[in-house]
From TrEMBL:
<dbReference type="InterPro" id="IPR016181">
    <property type="entry name" value="Acyl_CoA_acyltransferase"/>
</dbReference>
<dbReference type="GO" id="GO:0016747">
    <property type="term" value="F:acyltransferase activity, transferring groups other than amino-acyl groups"/>
</dbReference>
<dbReference type="InterPro" id="IPR000182">
    <property type="entry name" value="GNAT_dom"/>
</dbReference>
<dbReference type="Pfam" id="PF00583">
    <property type="entry name" value="Acetyltransf_1"/>
</dbReference>
<protein>
    <submittedName>
        <fullName>GNAT family N-acetyltransferase</fullName>
    </submittedName>
</protein>
<feature type="domain" description="N-acetyltransferase">
    <location>
        <begin position="118"/>
        <end position="269"/>
    </location>
</feature>
Amino acid sequence: MKPISLGFRTDLMVRRLAGARITEHASHLVVATPANPGFWWGNFVLFDHPPRPGDAARWEAVFSGEFPDAAYLALGVDGTDGDPGDAAELARLGVTVEVNSVLTATRLAPLARPAADATIRPLTSDDDWARAVALRLACYEDEASSPDTARFVERQLREERGLCEAGHGAWFGGFVDGQLRAAGGLLGDNDGLARFQSIETHPAHRGRGLASTLLHRAGTWGLRERGAHTLVIVADPDYHAIGLYRALGFTDAERQVQLQREPCPDIDR
């Protein structure tokens, strides 16, 4: 199976760079990230079509066979039009359907309102990355105090730091008065595509142009210094941040479908 979805192609690019195992079958791909088994979208099955009548039991059996210890279910649907598939099969799977927008840009528009008080630079030191962990936990807000959430975030940032230090991109920070208040990565395999990852702003510092300024700096770096010809970002179409991306010159390219069923609340993610 060769995915046609740009969203999943760049997801798989990042997973490969991170050392994930990607196993190809006729109708699906299995993506496994042993270093972070609790990362649902690092351990999932990508199918080559939306679920059709009779697919639910087979798809769940495929996932369970590949991830027997998983308490969740994560299934990707290859395609570009956002079709989630047969409603009855989705009900049998008991999944939540997420249809996200995949946006691309080959050049960036000028910043309308740059964050003049921010310093934007790549994260480099142990202290920088420790601050990135704290920032992500702050963005989790209600979940931040959970030890499971803290472990999950630490694993994520460890992987992201490793990708940057291996030369696959950079993680940019937006510092205000010396404190990390926004962060996000841009990763690629030097084949022309560069994928934005985890653009986040501290809850107390949103609406000040930090994310836009960071995205513009990182995207310009990717286009000019990394030789990327296309920047890719995936966004919730109903969340306000998508307007920020469009203002920077990103345009909607396709829709990406993810199906997931969360574990019971008392099960470690």
